[in-house]
Write a structure and sequence with these properties.
Number of domains: 1
Structural class: alpha/beta
Radius of gyration: 17 Å
Number of helices: 8
Shape: globular
Strand order of the largest sheet: 2-1-3-4-5-6
Order of helices and strands: EEHEHEHHHEHEHH
CATH architecture: 3-Layer(aba) Sandwich
C-alpha cells in the first residue's frame, strides 16, 4: 500500500537580518498537521556559511528561487520576518506573476510595507560598536553573542549585507498579489508602527489582516504561541479558519 500524500502546506520561512534557518528550528511540532516548515538558508550563514552574503533583495530571490520553485507544486505559504518579509513578498510575487503559482497566504512580520518610507539613516554604515548597540536595542541578539568579538567579526559582514539589502530595496509597482496577507507587529516595536504595517494592505487584492502582538521587534519569542496559532489558522484549507482571528484584528 502506498503512503498517503503529504497534504500539508509548505511554509517557506525567511529570517530577519543576520538570522538563519535555525530561527525556525522549533516550529515544526506546533504546526504539525497544518504546515511543513521549509526554513530558507540565506547565503553566508548556517549550512551556507562559506557562501558570500548578498546585499540585494533581487539577488537573494534569484538565489533562493531554484530550490523553492520545485517545492511550490503543492499548496504553499510564506512567512517573512523583518528583512525576510521583503524576501517573502518578492518571492510570492515572482511565483505568482512569472510562474502562475499563488501562495495560500503571505505572513509579513516586523517590517514596514514596501511602499512605506525608510525611517532613518542607513544602519549598515554604523561603526562596529554602534552597530552592536543597535542590535542590542532591537533585542534579538543574545548578550553573550554581542560580547564575543570573534563571533561578531563573523556576524558583522552578514548583518551589514542584509541591512544594505533592506536600505537599497526599491518597490516596483507590479500587479498586486491575489493571496491573503497577514501583517504582524509588536506592540512595543518603536521602529515598525501599526500604520506602516497596515500599508501592506495595498500589496494584495486578497484578504488583509493586521495583528499586533505583545512584545518588541522580536515578538516571535515573547508571543510565539499566539504567532504560531495565527499561522496555523491562516494556512488551514478551510477558508473560514480566519474567523479564529478576533474581529478587531481584521482589516
Amino acid at each position: 500500500m502506498s503512503a498517503a500524500p503529504d497534504t500539508r502546506v509548505r511554509l517557506f520561512c525567511l529570517p530577519y537580518a543576520g538570522g538563519s534557518a535555525y530561527v525556525f528550528r522549533d516550529w515544526s511540532a506546533p504546526l504539525a498537521g497544518a504546515a511543513r516548515i521549509w526554513p530558507a538558508e540565506l547565503p553566508g550563514r548556517g549550512a551556507r556559511l562559506h557562501h558570500e552574503p548578498l546585499d540585494d533583495v533581487g539577488a537573494v530571490v534569484d538565489d533562493l528561487l531554484p530550490s523553492i520553485l520545485p517545492a511550490a507544486g503543492q499548496p504553499f505559504a510564506f512567512l517573512g520576518y523583518s528583512y525576510g518579509a521583503l524576501l517573502a513578498f518578492e518571492l510570492a510575487r515572482r511565483l505568482e506573476y512569472r510562474y502562475g503559482l499563488t501562495a495560500r497566504h503571505l505572513f509579513v512580520a516586523a517590517m514596514r510595507a514596501p511602499t512605506w518610507p525608510s525611517p532613518g539613516p542607513p544602519q549598515s554604515r554604523l561603526p562596529d560598536r554602534e552597530l552592536d548597540a543597535y542590535l542590542r536595542d532591537l533585542g534579538g541578539t543574545p548578550e553573550e553573542v554581542l560580547a564575543n568579538e570573534a563571533l561578531m567579526s563573523v556576524m558583522h559582514p552578514i548583518v551589514r549585507a542584509d541591512l544594505r539589502a533592506v536600505e537599497g530595496y526599491a518597490y516596483r509597482p507590479l500587479p498586486r498579489l491575489s493571496c491573503p496577507v497577514t501583517a504582524l507587529g509588536g506592540t512595543s516595536d518603536a521602529g515598525v508602527s501599526a500604520a506602516s504595517l497596515r500599508a501592506w494592505r495595498a500589496c494584495t487584492d486578497g484578504r488583509f489582516t493586521l495583528r499586533m502582538l505583545q512584545g518588541g521587534h522580536f515578538f516571535l519569542h515573547a508571543a510565539r504561541d499566539e504567532l504560531l496559532q495565527i499561522i496555523r489558522s491562516g494556512v488551514a484549507p478551510d477558508r473560514d479558519s480566519d474567523l479564529l482571528v478576533p474581529a478587531e484584528g481584521r482589516q
